[in-house]
Amino acid sequence: IIIEEKILLSIKEASKLFGIGQHRLRAIIAEDYGNKYHLMIGRTIKIKRKSFETFLNEAEQYNRQGALGVL
Description:
Layout: E1 8-9, H1 11-18, H2 22-30, E2 38-41, E3 44-48, H3 49-70
Antiparallel strand pairs: 1-3, 2-3
């Protein structure tokens, strides 16, 4: 299965797909208290690809608006 078609991604797969380091991904997940974009299967972390993409897009929009507000 192609990574882009998977619904759930491992930390390693998400790191490759989104270009974010594995340590940073784990830090982001640690702050996801409502399990909006990850789930735990035993001790294994799985990233919900669509939800995580939405999170990244919203974070990008927030950062752009913040940068524009400074100007």
